[in-house]
Amino acid sequence: MKTLFSFLLFLLLPFSLYGQENLSSDDLFAKARKAAFDEKDYPTAIKLAQQALDKSPDYTDISVFLGRVYTWSDDLTSARQVFEKLDQKNVKDQDFFIAYASLEYWNNQYDKAITIIDKGLSYHPQSEELLLLKAKVYNSNNQFVEAEKATSSVLEINPKNTEARALSIRIKELTSKNAVGITYNYSHFDKQFNDDWHIIGVSYKRATSIGSFIIRGNYANKFAENGTQIELEAYPRISKTFYLYAGAGYSNDVGIFPKYRTGVSLFANLPHSFEGEIGYRQLYFSSNIWMYTASVGKYYKNFWFNLRTYISPDNKNISHSYTGTMRYYTKGAYDYFGFQIGTGISPEESINNLLENETYKLKTFKIGGEYNFSINKSNLFSVSAMYYNQEYRPNEKGNQYDITIGYTKTF
């Protein structure tokens, strides 16, 4: 039986080879793409692409595809041979420059990748793909100013480019070595307190090779009394995907500020322009208040959406705080309109000292908006307003109105 099967296979083999030989280069290219993309069978895809090139040696798309498949197969020598041959032919196709530069980018040959991209941009100056790839290369090489210029070019061409928007936000804190800022927050209560609150904060940020560090001093007048607080924050980068937030604060004016505060979060830049966070916040007045936080964000065209929760467990129940945020970016990373809606009090808010009295276990509704804009990229302005309807005692509610303005100078 085995002998008979081998004999029949021998008889049919010439017809099979003949059929393959009669396929056009387009047919072979289509089969090669199916093998690569649908079946992940790179060796077969390479053979089919080579057969197609035997029929049509100047078919650029097939050569670019072959170089890509060699790259995916980690056969870098063969991939470079294909791309260098196309370069010698002075090929000007955009896909060629993207494929060739991507090979060098993925293998940490950043200078060579930039050279290839710049040559491609000389033929395709409005190419979003090439400009975005240029931004990624510069970002990976810690050349953040150049990366910001590239993302800005993409967003000038297409403000709705989601990937460029997400990257521009991630690198915005790294493009200036120094930043000094001042904020003022005003709070008015219709029932809960007789006196308005005032908070002024002054900060200095320094960007380093491992991340940004911030020192901030706060002065507050609450309950007609004065208080001060000092805060330190750090945003060290762990990898291209992960970075940390670590913060601590101290005040000797307990009640106006917590005596101590700490916080740590792990952030992740996820695929498809998502981002995530998980961490904790701790406030100490006369005892510790622990809050665990998680958030998920998504960039979509000009928009950024975020949902955050704070969970505060105790012996009797678990208290929850939820905030939804939406931003619409008008230009760069510093220019946007924002909208917030949520329930509960978070430890990040100016009224966090109310947590000492466990008002976070009562019902609070909040809604507000903000507008941030920049002038000459180094002068950053912000204005926001927030409305709270808070149950400050069981079955007793009051209204609170907050206005915050800020200015930051980067250099």
Write the layout of secondary structure elements.
Blueprint: H1 2-21, H2 25-38, H3 42-55, H4 60-72, H5 76-88, H6 94-106, H7 110-123, H8 128-140, H9 144-157, H10 162-171, E1 178-189, E2 197-208, E3 211-222, E4 225-236, E5 242-250, E6 260-270, E7 274-284, E8 288-300, E9 303-313, E10 318-329, E11 336-343, E12 364-375, E13 379-393, E14 396-410
Antiparallel strand pairs: 1-2, 1-14, 2-3, 3-4, 4-5, 5-6, 6-7, 7-8, 8-9, 9-10, 10-11, 11-12, 12-13, 13-14
Keywords: Repeat, Signal, TPR repeat
Protein name: YaiO beta-barrel domain-containing protein
InterPro entries: Beta-barrel_YaiO, TPR-like_helical_dom_sf, Ycf3/AcsC/BcsC/TPR_MFPF
Characterization of this structure:
With 411 residues, the protein is an alpha+beta fold. The chain folds into two domains: 24-161, Tetratricopeptide repeat domain (Serine Threonine Protein Phosphatase 5, Tetratricopeptide repeat, Alpha Horseshoe); 176-410, Porin. Helix content is 34%, strand content 40%. It contains ten helices and 14 strands. The protein has helices spanning 2-21, 25-38, 42-55, 60-72, 76-88, 94-106, 110-123, 128-140, 144-157, 162-171; strands at 178-189, 197-208, 211-222, 225-236, 242-250, 260-270, 274-284, 288-300, 303-313, 318-329, 336-343, 364-375, 379-393, 396-410. A 14-stranded antiparallel barrel has the order 1-2-3-4-5-6-7-8-9-10-11-12-13-14. Helix 2 packs antiparallel against helix 3, helix 6 runs antiparallel to helix 7 (110-123) and helix 6 packs parallel to helix 8. The longest helix has 20 residues, at 2-21. The N and C termini lie far apart (83 Å).
